[in-house]
Automatic annotation (TrEMBL):
PANTHER family: OSMOSENSING HISTIDINE PROTEIN KINASE SLN1, TWO-COMPONENT HISTIDINE PROTEIN KINASE. It comes from Pyxidicoccus fallax. Residues 40-51 have a biased composition (Low complexity). Residues 1-55 are annotated as: Disordered. SUPFAM superfamilies: ATPase domain of HSP90 chaperone/DNA topoisomerase II/histidine kinase, Homodimeric domain of signal transducing histidine kinase, PYP-like sensor domain (PAS domain). This is histidine kinase.
Length: 693
């Protein structure tokens, strides 16, 4: 069939009453007389039954306007294409559906999306005179390559294509009606996805799951775990009796009972005797099975789903415990740790092992009311106050308290001991009532060692304090002499003395300064440890103080190759200890120059919400997350001391001083990305909350 080429190329027209009326105005006038002649005989044919569409339209005053109205106002999206594949006309519903109209250069036979989905042939068949309907497909004109459309909708559609040809003539156009099934398809895909999720949950569940349908209980689903537990038997598609013929009648009746009653059922530790492996070896396993009825759309029960857990090991373990109660009591008697058992509520002692009796110096009394324990047991707290009957460990655990390392002094016939008491409640199980287990740890020796250690620490701190003060005096004198020597060298830099000893003197000055800082750190630690740290508050401008301290660090920053980026902001005045605040800033700057050598160091001060915020950031080696809290402890560091000197006291001192002034410090850092220290200080000391009278 030869197709008539498109006569005129132009933009696609969207159908409106005015556009179509004007397009066909001439033809309307041409056939006006014919329509009038036709109308004269229309009444006589109206009663003759259904007439051809051409005859019916002939009786309408303006059939073209009527068809145009139907095309324009139809809720169905329509388009008309010429034989060469270009779009001639669309209606408003088309624009609303697609979000855009086809550009003039669009050609349905060059549509790569249709070609890729194998749909182009449907439209060729329509031009060949066949009425066709495409399957549902997703379409987004923005994905086209031969045309450019920036704004459009992605929709799921099906197309109904039918040819347009004059009576007895060749097809010159095709009309396409579009059905938007996006919502339906999305809902169907969502439902499919939910089904897939549910199927995946059932498939991967750690319990055996099956779905049985109908009064004959036919397997509709069995997850892999159930298939494995059943020895790989063929289940799906077979009834319960067919798939597992050796299942007990009682268990089958339990299944049927759920379907008949429509009520949920649970079988706890149900013994099931089967040939599980299908090898002729029958064994009994214990199962906890949950039965849930399944209902159809009308609410009628048409099946059930079961969730089964193999609890054989738990049941056998419980039986073993019940049979070995006396054996366990004998084992407890052999334990070197004292253990007693207390009855919840009453506080009565129900059991004591041999170690507990030995610690007491005699058999612990059983069957004695707990109210009498205050007279039978002499127990004091660490301060030496005797505990009343209500304060004894047994009375406390009887009230439901959980003890975790409670230290008490137990004065027994065998002597005085310090014990650490803990407790755990065993709930009622396997026929045994609830009980509280209380193990004792004899920590008498540990407390003696702890006391000696505390004395040693106090002696160490005292030694550090004395040694630091003693070292400070000669070091100060040495520093003054070096300073005088350095001034003499600076006064005559060309002298033989300057040329020979200038660099050595400068190095010695730095080492003396470093040694003085270490001694100051030890002094601070000794003051903190002995409680002699004092905070003397005064009005301090943190911004001005930061500028002063950073100015003193310029030579050290130059030696480290670090540029100091200081942003003090406006005045930030608060009530702080000036000397201690200088120490905080100095330690943070020294830390940044040490670990960020060769890179800039950034210092910033700001004030917000009644708090001052100091931020010191370097771009050095960084700190791993596990060390963020540890670096603020005494003698701790995040790197090897062989590469970076110091005692690991700087950040500990900073944290102590900041907290003493009511503030906080934290760090943000990752390895290789530098470290940022944040210090927050209240502008005014926080008053402690008044205690309620």
């Amino acid at each position: 069939m030869t197709r008539t080429p498109r006569a005129v190329q132009g933009p696609v027209r969207s159908a409106t009453p005015s556009s179509v009326a004007k397009t066909h105005e001439g033809r309307g006038q041409q056939h006006a007389g014919e329509r009038r002649r036709t109308r004269s005989g229309s009444s006589s044919r109206a009663s003759s039954g259904t007439r051809p569409l051409r005859e019916q339209l002939a009786s309408v005053p303006d059939p073209l306007a009527l068809l145009e109205g139907l095309f324009t106002h139809s809720p169905v999206a329509y388009s008309i294409f010429t034989v060469d594949g270009h779009c001639l006309l669309i209606n408003p519903a088309y624009r609303a559906m697609f979000g855009a109209e086809p550009p003039p250069e669009y050609n349905i036979f060059r549509d790569e999306l249709l070609e890729r989905m194998g749909l182009t042939e449907y439209f060729r068949r329509a031009f060949a005179g066949e009425t066709v309907q495409t399957p549902v497909f997703w379409y987004d004109v923005r994905e086209l390559e031969h045309v450019e459309v920036k704004e459009a909708n992605r929709i799921a559609i099906s197309c109904h294509c039918f040819p347009l040809a004059p009576s007895g003539g060749e097809v010159s156009h095709i009309a396409i009606a579009y059905k938007d099934v996006t919502a339906e398809l999305v809902a169907r895909e969502a439902e499919h996805a939910e089904r897939q999720k549910l199927y995946q949950v059932f498939t991967q569940a750690p319990v055996a799951i099956n779905v049985l349908r109908g009064p004959e209980l036919r397997f509709e689903f069995a997850n892999p775990l159930l298939q494995k537990l059943m020895g790989g038997r063929e289940l799906v598609g077979r009834t319960l009796r067919e798939a597992i013929p050796d299942l007990s009648p009682d268990l089958v009746s339990l299944h049927l009972g759920v379907v008949e009653s429509g009520e949920r059922a649970v079988a706890n530790e149900y013994p099931v005797t089967l040939d599980y492996d299908g090898q002729g070896q029958v064994e009994t396993k214990f199962w906890t099975i949950i039965y849930e009825p399944l209902r159809d759309e009308s609410g009628r029960v048409d099946g059930l789903v079961t969730f089964a857990s193999d609890v054989t090991e738990q049941v056998l373990a419980r039986l073993a415990v019940e049979h070995q109660q006396k054996w366990l009591e004998a084992v407890l008697d052999l334990m070197p740790i004292p253990v007693v058992m207390v009855e919840p509520g009453s506080g009565d002692l129900t059991f004591s092992n041999a170690a507990a009796d030995r610690l007491h110096g005699q058999m612990l009394p059983k069957g004695v009311p707990a109210a009498s324990y205050g007279e039978l047991f002499h127990i004091t707290d660490p301060e030496g106050r005797r505990l009343t009957a209500e304060e004894l460990p047994a009375a406390r655990v009887a009230r439901g308290e959980r003890l975790d390392g409670l230290e008490v002094n137990w004065h027994t016939e065998a002597g005085d001991v310090v014990v650490s008491v803990s407790s755990e409640t065993l709930p009622a199980m396997h026929g045994h009532p609830a009980s509280v287990v209380m193990p004792f740890l004899d920590i008498t020796r540990l407390k003696t060692v702890e006391r000696h250690l505390q004395e040693a620490i106090r002696a160490r701190d005292e030694f550090l304090s004395v040694a630091s003060h003693e070292l400070k005096t000669p070091l100060t004198s040495l520093g003054l002499r070096l300073h005088a020597l350095a001034r003499a060298i600076d006064a005559d830099p060309e002298s033989s003395l300057a040329r020979r000893y200038g660099r050595e003197v400068a190095a010695m000055k730095r080492q003396v300064t470093r040694l003085a800082e270490l001694i100051d750190g030890l002094l601070d630690v000794s003051r903190i440890s002995t409680g002699r740290l004092r905070i003397l508050r005064e009005e301090v401008d943190l911004s001005a103080l930061v500028q002063e301290v950073t100015a003193r660090f310029v030579p050290e920053a130059e030696r480290a190759g670090c540029a100091l980026d200081v942003r003090p902001g406006g005045p930030c005045v608060g009530s702080w200890d000036r000397v201690r605040l200088e120490q905080v800033v100095s330690n943070l700057l020294s830390n940044a120059l040490k670990y960020g050598a060769g890179r800039p160091v950034h210092v910033q001060v700001e004030e917000s919400d009644g708090r001052a915020r100091l931020r010191v950031r370097d771009e050095g080696i960084g700190i791993d997350a596990d060390s963020h809290a540890r670096i603020f402890q005494k003698f701790e560091r995040a790197v090897s001391e062989r590469h970076y000197g110091g005692l690991g006291l700087g950040l500990y001192v900073v944290r102590t001083l900041v907290e003493a002034m009511g503030g906080s410090i934290r760090v943000e850092s990752r390895p290789g990305e530098g470290a940022t220290f944040f210090v927050e200080l209240p502008l005014r000391p926080v008053e402690p909350a008044a205690q309620a009278s």
